[in-house]
Write a structure and sequence with these properties.
single chain, 434 Repressor (Amino-terminal Domain), about 80 residues, about 60% helix, mainly alpha
Length: about 80
Amino acid sequence: METNILIIFGAGVRQFRLAQQLSQEQLALKANLDRTYISGVERGVRNISLLNIQKIANALNVTLPVLFNAIQPPTEENQ
């Protein structure tokens, strides 16, 4: 079964946001994006651009490598 990378990425963004006790609206304001856009990213329904990934990473105070390394698709071993 193929795992949807958009859902995995969105879940990772949500984890970082919640760890910092930010609402979607607060993250959106920090990233200069709309709250509905953040919602779509977290739900995996937005095919987010690299520029917006950078905005979100900056708003979460993490580097792109940290953001991407924390988001690993499940393997057959850990499903």
